[in-house]
Amino acid sequence: MRQAKILFRNEEAGLLTQHDDGSFTFRYHEAWINDSTKPDISLTLPKTHREFHSDYLFPFFYNMLPEGSNKQVVCKHHRIDADDPFGLLLITAAADSIGAVRVITSEMP
């Protein structure tokens, strides 16, 4: 299992988890949900108390990944399997992302 903190404008909004079977879960932190001034990170991931589950990386996060030759360069440089979107997300969306959302490594509890 791997986890990543999801930051919105440098504030921690939730947690993205890749399970051992390859599926994914995203959930907002309670403090984020309870604060009416905090927005959804995506229209496809509205603020709610329920967890979101998917067999694949959620499209919102998948669309943050590099493509084509940029993906090849990043994978080669960081020695990441091209078929590991979560690993690629952790490398590319930590500091260099378009928009307000960043993805950073989370230490396992």
Automatic annotation (TrEMBL):
A Pfam family of the record is: Couple_hipA
Matching InterPro entries: HipA_N1
Q: Which domain of life is it from?
A: Bacteria
Tell me which residues make up the HipA N-terminal subdomain domain.
5-103
NCBIfam families for the chain: couple_hipA (TIGR03071)
The name of this protein is: HipA N-terminal domain protein
Native source organism of the sequence: Runella slithyformis (strain ATCC 29530 / DSM 19594 / LMG 11500 / NCIMB 11436 / LSU 4)
